[in-house]
Structure formats: structure tokens, C-alpha cells
Amino acid sequence: MKELFQTLKQNKKFRLLSVIVPLAIVFVICSSVIVAQSADISRLKKQEAAYSAQLSAQEEENEQLIAILDSNDKDSYIEQKAREKGYVKSDEVVFYDISGSN
């Protein structure tokens, strides 16, 4: 009789462990997935904010360029950009200060 009671007691422990251990494993796996997804969401939100700021700056630059193209003063703008790149007019003489003093 004692043996039967001990066998049943051991079976209850075995059944309890056979339920608890897989549930604990599933819980740990789900928790790690949730933490990883949360980190990804945070990273993507930061990336979205950076892209939104970049988009805003580009739209502002586009508006400025459209305003320049629509104005009558676009030739002077083109000339300014060409001079910034080192271009000169065909009849101009360019002098460079090579003395090294400012």
C-alpha cells in the first residue's frame, strides 16, 4: 500500500513537472522575443525620427530651389554656385594669395 501511495505521489510530481517545465520554457522564450521586439521598435522609432528630420530639411531645400528657379535672379544664383566650385568667366583673371598669411 505504501508503495502504491509513493508511486502515485511520484506520478503527481512527474505530471506537475511535465507541465511546469514546458510552460517555463515557453515563458522564457516568449519573454526573450518580446524584449527583442521592443528593442527593435525603439531602434526603428529613432530611425524614423532621423528620417523625418532629413525629409523636412530636404523639403525646405527643395522649396528654396523652386523659389530661386521661379525668380528672375536665377542667373546670379547659377553664377554664385559656379564660383563656389572654382569656375571663372572667360575674360576674368584670378589671383591667388600664396603668402600663407590671413
Descriptive notes:
There is one protein chain. The chain is mainly alpha-helical and 102 residues long. The chain has two helices and no strands.
Feature tags:
single chain, mainly alpha, rod-shaped
* String of helices and strands: HH
Q: What's the tally of helices?
A: 2
Return the average pLDDT rounded to an integer: 87
Overall 3D shape: rod-shaped
Radius of gyration: 37 Å
Helical residue percent? over 70%
What portion of residues belong to β-strands?
A: under 5%
Q: What is the structural class?
A: mainly alpha
**Could you give a short account of the major beta sheet?**
none
Q: How many angstroms separate the termini?
A: 106 Å
The strand count comes to 0
Spans where pLDDT lies below 50 across 5 or more residues: none
